[in-house]
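Mods, move this if it's the wrong board.
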Amino acid sequence: MGYYQTTGHASQLDQTYGPVLNHLLARKSERDRLENLRDIIRAIILLATPFSVNSLAALMNMEPKEIDLKLEYLYSVRDMPVDSNTPVRMLHQSFRDYLRVIPQAAREQRPGQSFLG
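Not the wrong board. Structure tokens:
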């Protein structure tokens, strides 16, 4: 059973996006490399206006290359910017919705196992 399995509407989103997040957390070596990924994802889904890699890097006090490396993990659910000045966007609004719904459901079912914390 993966970390992100819930019931109701969220379970439909879980069938789509749960494997993406579960894959990221499958191995300890991957989890170690995800140190800042949660913060980057939070920024992307919570900002009203999408930021570019360069803007995210400045906001988060990180190097643009570090942001790029972390975003590679999300290749299946995000739009691939053509350069570091193009806004980073998720491919579907439903992924954003999923990340907003799942943390609460995950806390209720498995405290401490929410992807976004």
